[in-house]
Amino acid sequence: MRSIQQQLRRQWLISLLVLMLPLLLLADYGVRQIVGHYVLSRLQHDADSLIAALQRDPQSGRWQLQEQRLGTVYQRVYSGHYYAVRNTDALLQSRSLWDKTPPVLNLSSGERRDWTQPGINTGNRQEMWLNLALGITVDNQPFTLWLAEDISAQQQQLQRYRLGALALLGLTLLILLLIQRGQLSRAFARLHPLQQQLRELRFGERDNLGAASGQYPQEVQPLAEEIDRLLQQLQQRVGRSRNALGNLAHEMKRPLQQLQLLAEQLSPQQQQQQREVLERLQTLIQRELKRARIVGVASPGRHTKLADELPALLDVLQRLYPQVTIASDFPADAILPQDRDDMLELLGNLLDNACLYGGNRVQLSIRNQAGAWQIQVCDNGPGISAGQRAQLLQRGVRLDESGPQGSGLGLAIVQDIVSSYGGTLALSANAPQGLCVDVQLPASSHG
Predict the structure, then answer these.
(1) Which of 366, 364, 328, 348 has its CA nearest to residue 410?
(2) What share of the chain is helix, strand, coil (3-state, %, to 5)?
(3) DSSP labels for 292-352?
(4) What is the mean pLDDT of residues 264-269?
(5) With contact defined as beta carbons under 8 Å apart, do 297 and 309 qualify?
(6) What is the rounded radius of gyration, in angstroms, for the C-alpha atoms of the chain?
(7) Which residues, in sequence order, are bridge partners of residue 377?
(8) Spatial separation of the C-alpha atoms in residues 302 and 299, rounded to whole Å
(9) 375 forms bridges with which residues in the sheet?
(10) For 414-434, how does the pLDDT look when each residue is reduced to its tens digit (9 = 90+)?
(11) CB-CB contact of 271 with 264 (8 Å)
């Protein structure tokens, strides 16, 4: 998608061209009209001189021109200034025409015409004539006056003017584009704080954009306010859900204790059946309470800063399992791009399972290798055979029915989280004994 700066620049350039081109065309038309009117006024002046110089010879009765009353420019051959006076009996033309024939015209008295046409072409000389023709009457004799002036020099000058104007227009557009680019850069620089705060929000360094401070440009302020409202609503909803789940698990403990007391009034066989059901319910309750303690305050959308989140998680688990030694190895500046709550639930389930079933030592290792995050949790417990490892990933399956009570959801939940980010989950044997769970997650959050 084209950037906003590119769209603004393109639309501004189109608007400028739409405004400038008509002005340029109007200026070109005005210059051509001024040149044309100037040449025509000069031809009209020469036409008046021709009329004044036209007279009849008293002896021969022929019409003739007093050439001394005309300029010498009409005497030089191909001077670029030409005339012809025509009636039914005579044709008088300037010497400058030499062997060229003037156009044949027959205008009525008072009629006037002007036009442009190619003139004398002698190889190196290519003329463009601006013509003026007049119909007059002298001594009751009709005449047609024709005058022409070569305007090729003016047209060449006009062409140079056009090229210069286009070059000036191009230079002006370039300068204006550079000015606009600087202005847009300064304007969009005001959005850099928003970009920085979004980055801080992404890495969990802040909870909102602080739109209430009114620090953003007027065009962006509504967007920042809407983002803050959505973030607040999301945090409140997730927090309420977590609190409600924890409260539910806590409130169910007393009714379960009452059910255990009532179970003593049943037959031994019924007591055993009810005891098993109650133990499963208690396990689920304890798991949800533990999960709420592990994740802590809901913070959806944040990335996972290991140095901030892991110590608290390990401290909770160490208090829950004081008989287990939990060791960890991870980069102090590591930030996982995945959601903070998802990663705490993933790590909490892996470590919880290892502490519950894996002996007295658990090792957590997190590394960024080959463009992916490698998470490994190993224990020194009894381990699992190769044939049973695939079965362990199925939701609700527990292989150790005789050990501590569990729901079998731990690794299945982990597998769901890993799959949602496009990662992989694998089980392998630890040396000399135990189980290793290896998780690989993409280094980008777009899994």
Answers:
(1) 348
(2) 50, 20, 30
(3) HHHH-S--TT-EEEHHHHHHHHHHHHHHH-TTSEEEEE--TT-EEEEEHHHHHHHHHHHHH
(4) 72
(5) no
(6) 49
(7) 364, 437
(8) 6
(9) 366, 439
(10) 888 898 888 999 999 998 899
(11) yes
